[in-house]
């Protein structure tokens, strides 16, 4: 009998010492990632301020607000623009009575609108600078002069073709509602193939002089991919650094190509649950 009592005591102590049993794990924070096009960079044939697009944007905002995110993150650099500037703009926006907005960018049209709908006091910035433009120009120049253009236009073996290069995207935009176009951007095939181009195509560009330490053109395409990853890791870090981890859900609106890496980073963190866009964005 004493042996059984001792065994039960040891078992109970071991369970108490194990954090899995000693306390209930915190619920995972739901992460809603929305890939978008940049509203203000469209030409004169597509104006998001047109009434039909405004109605579609409002519908999109209502869908997002239904998910009840505790924090709304936008594609702006906190250390560049300074948070008080965005805070001031959002305060002015929150006090506006009119539903009409003159600012075309998606940060106001969607990010500010959703935060206001939910009664938030602020929005959160998380963007980080990168060197994509300079590195792409350098990779492109090398590809043009070294018979590697097929790596960039995805015609060479070993490359991946983006879904958005297989369709007439201008026609798709014009013949869809803005919400439908956003849904297409966030579809699995668009996200998967856009990311594939970064990891399949760019790393093939550059010289193969791996042992020539004076060859500055070695791995120049890989440098572009590495910088793209670095930027998104910094964006992710800025997001989680602004959490108390008491949030139930968070929302981010950002250019579509960022989403696959951010999705992977959040999925790899056991504190988060990424919500599949195709399931909630409808």
How far is it from the N-terminal to the C-terminal residue, by CA? 62 Å
Order of helices and strands: HHEHEHHHEHHHHHHEHEH
Which percent bin holds the helix content? 40-55%
Structural class: alpha/beta
Mean pLDDT value? 90
Strand arrangement in the largest pleated sheet: 3-2-4-1-5
Largest sheet: 5 strands, parallel
Instruction: Enumerate the spans where pLDDT stays under 50 for 5 or more consecutive residues.
Output: none
Radius of gyration: 23 Å
Number of helices: 14
Secondary structure tally: strands: 5
Beta-strand percent range = 5-15%
Q: Would you mind describing this structure in some detail?
A:
By secondary structure, the protein is of the alpha/beta class. Helices cover 51% and strands 9% of the residues. The protein contains 14 helices and five strands. A five-stranded parallel beta sheet has the order 3-2-4-1-5, sandwiched between helices. Helix 3 crosses helix 6 and helix 12 (220-240) crosses helix 13 (259-268).
Question: How are the secondary structure elements laid out?
Answer:
Layout: H1 2-17, H2 19-22, E1 29-36, H3 51-66, E2 71-74, H4 78-81, H5 83-94, H6 106-117, E3 124-125, H7 132-145, H8 149-152, H9 169-174, H10 178-185, H11 188-200, H12 220-240, E4 249-255, H13 259-268, E5 272-274, H14 277-280
Parallel strand pairs: 1-4, 1-5, 2-3, 2-4
Task: Give a summary of the structure in a few sentences.
It is built from 14 helices and five strands.
Features:
282 residues; alpha/beta; five-stranded parallel beta sheet; 14 helices; 5 strands; 9% strand
């Amino acid at each position: 009998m004493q042996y059984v009592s001792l065994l039960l005591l040891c078992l109970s102590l071991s369970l108490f010492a194990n954090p899995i049993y000693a306390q209930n794990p915190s619920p995972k924070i739901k992460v809603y990632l929305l890939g978008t096009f940049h509203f203000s960079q469209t030409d004169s044939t597509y104006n998001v301020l047109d009434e039909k697009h405004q109605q579609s944007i409002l519908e999109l905002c209502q869908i997002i607000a239904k998910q009840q995110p505790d924090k709304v993150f936008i594609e702006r650099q906190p250390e560049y623009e300074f948070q008080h500037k965005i805070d001031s703009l959002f305060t002015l926006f929150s006090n506006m009575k009119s539903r009409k907005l003159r600012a075309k960018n998606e940060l106001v049209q969607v990010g500010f609108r959703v935060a206001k709908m939910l009664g938030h006091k602020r929005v959160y910035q998380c963007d980080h600078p990168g060197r994509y433009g300079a590195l792409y120009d350098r990779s492109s120049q090398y590809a043009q002069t070294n018979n590697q253009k097929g790596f960039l236009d995805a015609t060479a073996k070993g490359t991946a073709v983006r879904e958005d290069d297989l369709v007439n995207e201008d026609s798709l935009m014009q013949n869809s509602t803005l919400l439908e176009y956003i849904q297409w951007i966030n579809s699995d095939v668009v996200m998967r193939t856009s990311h594939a181009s970064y990891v399949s195509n760019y790393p093939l560009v550059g010289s193969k002089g791996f042992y020539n330490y004076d060859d500055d053109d070695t791995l120049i395409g890989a440098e572009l991919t590495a910088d793209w990853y670095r930027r998104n890791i910094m964006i992710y870090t800025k997001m989680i650094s602004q959490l108390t981890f008491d949030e139930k859900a968070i929302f981010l609106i950002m250019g579509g190509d960022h989403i696959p890496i951010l999705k992977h980073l959040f999925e790899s963190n056991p504190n988060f649950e990424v919500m599949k866009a195709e399931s909630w964005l409808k």
